[in-house]
Amino acid sequence: MKSLNNFVFTLTALGILLFSNRIYAQSKESELKKGNRVSVTIMPGEKHRYKVSMNANNFAFFRLIQNGVDAIITTYDLDGNKIEDFDSPNGRYGEETISIFSTKKGIYIVEVRNLEDKGLKGCYDLIFEKLESIGSTPPKIIDQLFETWKSLKTPGSSVAVARDGKIVFAKGYGCADLENDIPIIQSTVFNVASVSKQITAFAILLLEKDGKLTIDDDIRKFVPEVPDFGYKITLRHLMTHTSGLREQAGLLTMAGWRLDDVITMDHVLRLVSQQKELNFNPGNEFEYCNTGYSLLAEVVARVSGQSFAEYTRKNIFEPLKMNNTLFCDDYEKIVKKRAYSFRQDSTGYKKCVLNDVVVGSSSLLSTAEDLCLWAMNFEKPVVGNTETINMMNKPAVLNNGQILPYAFGQFYGKYKNLNFFAHSGSDGGYRAYFLRFPDQKFSVAVLSNYDSFNPSDLAYKLTEVYLKDQLRSDTQEKGSADSNEVVTKSVEVSSEILKTYCGQYEFQPGFVAIISYENDKLFMEAPGNRKIPLTPYSPAEFIVQGAPVKITFYKDENGKPIKLGINQRGNESFAARLPDFDPARVDLTEFIGDFYSRELSSTYSLNVRSGKLIASHFRTGDIVLIPVMTDNFSTDKWWFNQIEFVRDESKKITGLRVSSVGVRNLRFEKIGKAGASDQFWPE
């Protein structure tokens, strides 16, 4: 339903974005020239390399058509350094597009690699479509950056750039509605998903400015349906993702909802009202949580006496002349100039149906131009005042004094030595990125209606176009949610040492990562994600190619690995190594039964079929549970990730707890034919 920026996100993002760096046999290398079309067969585990001769400041564009091969394309500069990877989730069929912006004259490389080690051979066509000088003006360069999205045959993007209080660029690319060939223009409306959160936080601050509330008020003062968990949960906690509340998307999905079901604020409120526990005590941790922002929207509605959509329209959007912006709280609402969202599989483009109208955390419909008008209010407030803006930009602080890279509805950091505020958005097939550089009075909004679109990457590339003279190239940070290459030299480590690291490592109760050794390489696998290859740069230190992540194995005095640390931009999380465990010795029949959650009003039936423990739900279907340690299982479902069975004093199984993205230790009790027991969980 929404994007989740927490520790689990780090591993999930790695699983989605990264690919194996195994050394493949090179079987083909030739030169490509503009207008060439190469049609070739590629075997599993094979790679083909093509030379491209370019002058300085050239732009080259290529199109690769897959026919039975899942390919990743990598470009390299004159010195053999990787420039960029190109791959979309369309499997063995469909189109990949590749571009190179040259800096020097010489030979550049386009490498096509078959991602599969085994299986049948496949074919691809590689077409060298365009070679020209890099644009002489920012608009021309932006056109080249968006070359892939210029056709009405694909979804696309809308872009706007603001500088010094003016919109200096706004344009649309691609198709807003693939069924009717409607082009995306600069005023096309997109769902910007979690970019909504800063508007919600600002609405709360406006009410505080008017004396209607304070951000340190208890949420139960306004929304008494929120249970009393024994701790005060303030509006500030909700605004900074430090409340400890469970994530609404995880709860709904675990309860059997599809995320394209009709989901309203009433559904979320009823779900929250049934919760019995928090993930953590308020203020102790940061964990991205849409639930908190949904509740903030409800606070605005109850305090103002208007719907949240009406309050924000009258008090924010109209004064700022954001005429194409609204919070959509009606899934049947007709919205003029709205783009519809899409995904792609091996058969082509598919609609991404989105009926979620939970406002506050998401459901903001807007344009790239309107978001730039919103950015200008931070520079010269028309709505609110300087104090309001300063509060919006103030870093959040945990109970222990740790300062977070998050303010109110905004992540913040430095990009090449410049301060920025940013937030991404992801809902259905919509993708959004909104980026502000306050000191330069510069902002970028990149919106898309395609689920594989990377708006943050393009937002920073646009920043390079406009602020290149102010950026410092030795700083490579892009903020909390973006990946960057970690540049370091790999070393050879013996298989004997690598094998000692194999095992299970627990980051938090129920969240276990597996380290394995295959084909002379070490891999890490987080629950529900693909294996990630680890590249050694010392005998105990590894990097993840394509991401700013370092992994270190720590040993005891006898040299035995006892924990691992994952370091991302200076923040390290640790996982203790678990005792060795043999899953083949687990008696799966011991876990058979029906398990009911009062908090979800939902039941899962566990049975053994074909030697596997299966959890079945009438809506979610069957889930395979894999034993990872005593009484603990994992699955490949993000919303039903880790399962820990609970026993009584006689060692009889009486229930289980499930943890997933944004949900920790949700209770299910084992029930008989008569229904739920009142004795399982003490009140």
Task: Please explain how this structure is put together.
This protein starts with 6 loop residues before the first helix and ends in a 12-residue tail after the last strand. Helix 2 runs antiparallel to helix 11 and helix 6 crosses helix 7. The chain contains twelve helices and 38 strands. The N terminus and C terminus are likely disordered. An eight-stranded antiparallel barrel has the order 23-24-25-26-27-28-29-30. It has an eight-stranded antiparallel barrel with strand order 31-32-33-34-35-36-37-38. The chain is globular and about 75 Å long. By secondary structure, the protein is an alpha+beta fold. It folds into four domains: 120 residues, Lipocalin (Beta Barrel), CATH 2.40.128; 102 residues, Sandwich (Jelly Rolls), CATH 2.60.120; 244 residues, DD-peptidase/beta-lactamase superfamily (Beta-lactamase, 3-Layer(aba) Sandwich); 88 residues, Lipocalin.
Could you outline the blueprint of secondary structure elements for this entry?
Blueprint: H1 7-17, E1 25-32, E2 37-42, E3 46-54, E4 58-67, E5 71-76, E6 82-86, E7 93-101, E8 106-114, E9 122-133, H2 138-145, E10 157-163, E11 166-173, E12 175-177, E13 182-183, E14 190-191, H3 196-209, H4 235-239, H5 248-254, H6 265-273, H7 290-304, H8 308-317, E15 326-327, E16 342-345, E17 348-351, E18 364-366, H9 368-379, H10 386-392, E19 411-415, E20 418-427, E21 430-437, E22 442-448, H11 455-467, H12 495-500, E23 503-508, E24 511-518, E25 521-525, E26 532-538, E27 541-543, E28 549-555, E29 561-568, E30 571-577, E31 593-597, E32 602-609, E33 612-617, E34 621-629, E35 632-634, E36 642-647, E37 653-660, E38 663-671
Parallel strand pairs: 1-3
Antiparallel strand pairs: 2-9, 3-8, 4-7, 4-9, 5-6, 5-8, 10-11, 10-22, 12-13, 14-18, 15-18, 16-17, 19-20, 20-21, 21-22, 23-24, 23-30, 24-25, 25-26, 26-27, 27-28, 28-29, 29-30, 31-32, 31-38, 32-33, 33-34, 34-35, 35-36, 36-37, 37-38
